[in-house]
Structure formats: structure tokens, C-alpha cells
Design a protein that fits this description.
51% of the residues lie in helices and 21% in strands. By secondary structure, it is of the alpha+beta class. The relative contact order is 0.11.
Amino acid sequence: MADGSYREIYKHEQIKTEYGLPVRYIVYEENNAFISRHWHDDMEIVYLLAGSMEVEDGDSRRILQADDFVIINSRDIHSTRCIGHARILLLQFPINFLRANIPDYDTIRFEGYEQPFLSPEQNEMRKLLLAVAGLYEKKDQEGFRLAFLGHLYTILYTLVRDFKRVVSPQALLKTEKNLARLSTITSYVDAHYTQPLSVRQAASLIHVGEEYFCRYFKKYMGLTFLDYVMQVRIQHIDHDLLHTDLPVAEILERNGVSNYKAFLLKFKQLYHMSPRQRRETVSAGRQSSRS
């Protein structure tokens, strides 16, 4: 598949690189932040510096603690949720950069070696990521870019040497077909989440029956269609809570929420507080950081 068609088929996060680097490199802090199920062409490594984070990737669910990391491969369907306050190192690798440096990139994936103990491979990767995190404080100093690139290419080498797994052509083709189908659905939700949405509407987009659609969507997205719609709405609602002064009732209405009880249940499951408490908590934190 040509590079251009990836942009058309797959839901994509545009990476903005800085400091003359070929990857996106940031250290940031979040408080109970949630990002619903999505995917993108580019690979990323999330390294938790402090706090806790829940990561759902495909069928797996992990709770990261400080000094844990997770590799999110290109086109993996995943979601993240900070549990309270967290400090995070994020490395995002543009797919063209990966293809230029790993010729067989489109036929492999990187596995994180899930074990109940610290493997030598995991330990080495963690040391590399910790070293990269340390460079963040020196990003404005002379020689930063050279130091960073040295660590970056060592990380790539370690990934290829210790974490690489070849994917069969059949599995690749199946993934492409499924994501093309799912993109039709998620793009529709993105454009119409403020309106009433039904399983019937969604099933008609890919020309299947409702029962088959429900099984299909749950299998590949990891949650029901209506739960996905609610998560998308909640993300927009949370943004409005934190970045506008609009009344909560108005925010819910403008984002398509008609069943307040169902919404509140899902919101509290994700943030462990009400929308009003979420707004007040974040606002208090911002004021505290300014003083």
C-alpha cells in the first residue's frame, strides 16, 4: 500500500517534531486524563515517570506504574487513562522515519515481553528511556540534538534486536481490511457525535446486519458501539469543562448527551468524580501552579 493511502484509511495523529529531531519527544503531566480507543500509523513508546496509567491495547489491559513502559505499535487500537496525577515521557515515531531505518517495518511489530519479573531486555530499554527523559531538561543546551539522536538510534536497535516479531501477510491484510472498515464508522462518529446515533445507522455504513455489527465492533474495538460513542462524547465534554465557562448542562446538551444517568455513570468510571468536581479540581490545580 502506498504511503498516501495510509493517510486516507487510518485514523491518524499528526506528529509535530521539535528541536530538529525526527521524532516527537515530550515530557508532560496529566491529571485523570482519558483518551478513547483510537489508532494511528506511527509507533509510540509511553514511559511512566511518576503516577499510574491504564493502557488498553487490543485485548490486553495494563496498569503502568512509575518506571514502566509500553510499546504501542502502528495501527494498534488502544486507549489510555491516567489514574490521578501522572508524569509521562512520550516518544512518537513517524512511520516514514521507521520505514527509512527499518526496511521490513511494515511486516513486524514490537512486543514488550510481558513477564512477572524484570527481564534483561526490559531493564535495558528502561535505562535508555530514563536517559532520554533526563535529556529533556537539557533540550535547550548545545549538543542536545546529538546526544538525543545517539540514544534514539540505540533504542531502535534494541527494539529490533530484542522486541521484534514478524507478522504474517495474512494477518497484515486482515488488519488493513478491519481498520478500513472501522475508520468508516469512527469517522462518522467524529462528525456526528453531537447528534443521536444508533447501531442501525452504524451497521448500514458497512452494509451489515445489526447483530453482526455489534459482534464485529466489540471484537475489534474492545467495547460496544454505544460505549464508544459515549467515550467520544465524554472526551469532548471534558475538554469543554476544562477550557470553557459554560454551564455543565449546556456542555452535555451541545455534545449529544440525552441520558444523563448513563453519562454520569461512565464519566465517574473514567474520572472517579462528577463533571463539576472535575472542573473544580483541575481549576484549583491550575491556580496552585501559578501561585
